[in-house]
Amino acid sequence: MNSLKEFEQQLLRLDPAATDFVLRVDQLVEAVPESDRNEGLLEPIFAFFEAHPLDDMGAPGTLVHLTEGFYPSYTERLLDSLRTRPSYNAILLMNRILNGQLSDQERSKYMSALVETVKTPDLPKMLRDLAHRFLERRRTLDAEG
């Protein structure tokens, strides 16, 4: 793979509903030289999540794992994605962050982001239910704390 632009073009051509999607996305990511696996990959990945908001893409899958490798630098982009174009994978990423060790301030910020996501007008029921389920689970865990 020669460039970030090539990665983006190839990623955006993939169909997450295709039976071979997981294999193809794995191959695409493996083709990115280790030296080029940097935060520049985040924007195309979030654009892909937003273009396919209801697809789980492996749950969590290669793209979520790749994104998580850049924690915490992607959190502001994630918050923006949840505010503007919520997707299954953005909600999943936020849940995975909430499952980690966070300060009270961070936990409050991220829980609030999921609460606001649930309130998003015209949010597909599947995404609303997913975010709600993660919120309830997190609240239960925190109460048991």
Q: How would you portray this structure in words?
A:
Helix content is 65%, strand content 0%. It is globular. The protein has eight helices and no strands. It starts with a helix and ends with a helix. It is mostly helical and 145 residues long. Helix 5 crosses helix 6.
Task: Give me a quick take on this structure.
The chain is mainly α and 145 residues long. Helix content is 65%, strand content 0%.
The general outline is: globular
The biggest beta sheet is recorded as: none
What is the helical fraction, as a range of percent?
Answer: 55-70%
Q: How many strands in all?
A: 0
Cα-based radius of gyration, to the nearest Å:
15 Å
Element string (H = helix, E = strand): HHHHHHHH
Structural class by sheet pairing and helices: mainly alpha
Write the layout of secondary structure elements.
Blueprint: H1 4-13, H2 21-30, H3 42-51, H4 61-68, H5 75-84, H6 88-98, H7 104-118, H8 125-144
Search tags:
mainly alpha, about 140 residues, about 0% strand, 8 helices
